[in-house]
Predict the structure.
Amino acid sequence: MRKKYYILQRSLLALLLIVLVVVSSGLNDKTSASQLTVRSLTLSTAVVSQTGVTYTFGFTLAQTAAVQGLKFEACTTALGACTAPTGLSVSSATFSSQGSWTNATNFAVDGTGANDCTPAANVLCANRTQAANETAGARTIAFGTITNPSGASCSGSNPNCTFFVHITTYSTNNYTVGGTLDNGTVASSTTQTLTIAASIQEVLNFCIGSTAVDDATTSPGSDCSAITGTTVDLGVLDSATVTETPVSTTTNGNNKNGIAMLKTNASNGASVTYRAIQQSGTNHKGGLRVVGATCNAGSINTDQCIDSSASQAAFSAGTEAFGMTVAGTNCGSTGAYSCALGSGTNNLKAVSGYIGASATSYGTSNGYKWREDGSTDQIASSSTAVDDEALILVFAATPNIVTPTGSYQAQGDFIAIATY
Amino acid sequence: MKLLRAKTAFSGSWLLVVAIFLVLLWPSSVAADTMTNRSVTIQTALTNATTAHQFKFDYASATNVGSVTFDYCDNSPLEEDPCTAPAGLDVSNVTLTSQSGQTGFSIHPNTNTNRVVISRLPLSVSPGPASYTFNNAVNASAPNDTIFVRINTYTSTDGTGSSIDRGAVAFSLSSGLAVSAYVPPFLSLCTGVTVAVNCSTAVGLGVNLGTLSALQASAGTSQAAAATNDVTGYSLSVLGTTMTSGNNTIPALTAPTISSPATGQFGINLRRNTVPGKGHDREGGGTAAPTADYNQANLFKFNSGDTIAAASTSTDFNRFTITYLVNIPFGQAPGVYSTTLTYVAVASF
């Protein structure tokens, strides 16, 4: 009997435990929402007070059920009473997109709301009519035309201001409390605009020298630091020929052309000019002359000044003439962009009067020119930046048979002018 | 869970502190506007030259401007970098020779070796181009060196305070480029019975005067051509003797003399003659000419060593035709009379 009573007592206890477990389970279904997991909020821009921002929410539904209502409530804190972040406005928000939902019916922004969801500047309600279950799993939904918080909610109106959004899902499309399914909170922050400052200083590297290079492609040196020399030697002149640089050392030349290399970041371009340095003597001071000699004005063969070619022209042997031309723009040291004289992609171009052959070919067939009066004369220009392009300067001279013997010299003062 | 929230709050605070710290450390934004269309044109790029520097730029801000500064630096155009004065540069004595756009400026005493300050009573400016040219600037001493010039405008009249507009330009100096050439000395002389004007040909070594007679003059010609690029020209001389046959001679004419048959005469000239009808005047493009005693038609002379033609400067070729006149008296001893004459051209170089 005692044993029977004991068995009955234990059976009742077990039944009571089962009933309690069942009741407990039933209560949970009706009053406790599950946690949304893997929650995120992505802002298309975090700049404070920015309008037209798209908020993309991501979360994983915890349970399989119909989801017909969504509520997004933004607060300055994750817990406790909700204070709307200053400046935030979802009042004009629009549905943008949704992803991975089991049922294709899109949610729509609900400007009216009901029950547990009352639209406000910080509360966005969205619903749809879709009674079929959503399987548990990851979902996304995005809303546009939102205005970011101003940051005034944070201490010191710090634009780097965190705010929180509580997300609630409902099985009903009128947000009944009893229809609450899952919820969770995400955090985000506005930020100040970060200005990245940098300075690009003005660049002008211009150098004059001499070079053995006599084409448009062979690098005369990587940059101005590799350009040297101050003299171009035409060697021994002969009235029977037109002598042009480079002149071989076997005829007393120095096998060099002149070179003017330019590098600049001047966005409005640059120009290269020269002026003939005036030497001592009388008349034709800037021409190819014997320093200190008394020369006559005009074209006189019997003085120690070789006539300068005032305009570009090919020379005739024995007819006194001296001049210079830009045989071509050498791109051999240009690396910043595609540069080739043959295709006309060089930025630094010889100007009329000093174009040796053509705009796209290397040579001297057009002849030579030299302005001897000391005024500046432009020989090349660029409308944009230039990266170590080099003008190959070819000089030429021919004496008359009576051109007096002597050591002749001309000097050029080359100037680059960049406009930034 | 409380611990987690505490940690989160702690991290958030740190982020805030770091953010504020970064804000404080971040350089204050540059208030000055950037000038556009900036350029500098130097009259000469030669190192150490005393020259003019012309600056052009567009004012960017519509505000009062009382001064403009031009700082020459060889290290950087950036205002945040200290300015290193270019070696050798001196703009302390510049003069403002021209100004356009915004005008009324004059050199301010704050101008020094590498800084030019121009000043005026502050006046409102309109954005747009302006130009200022300074003379008497001494270029720096390093060739192929880039010199930066920082330009700033100020409301103050002495180049102090916060700048309104700013910008920089650059220029480069050089030692110039010399072109040298050598014209070698040149003297060309040719002689012969006939020669080309430019000495390209010379034919014949002797002149045969035939049989001499007391009744009429005998005459013949030879030619010589010469040119030089000696700036002092050249002289052409004749060396030799009168015509001889053993111990017998025909007297040379020691002064310009007309032909007189039946009189012993030997002479030359370099002209076209009518008595006798021999000879030719100077030919060619040169400037050489017969000397006076040999430059008279129908008058002849011979004196060994005489300069018979000369040029006072470099000259192209001239061809001279030399006429030989011989007269003999009755009773001139028979024989074969001859002479060898040598022509010498001399240039001094």
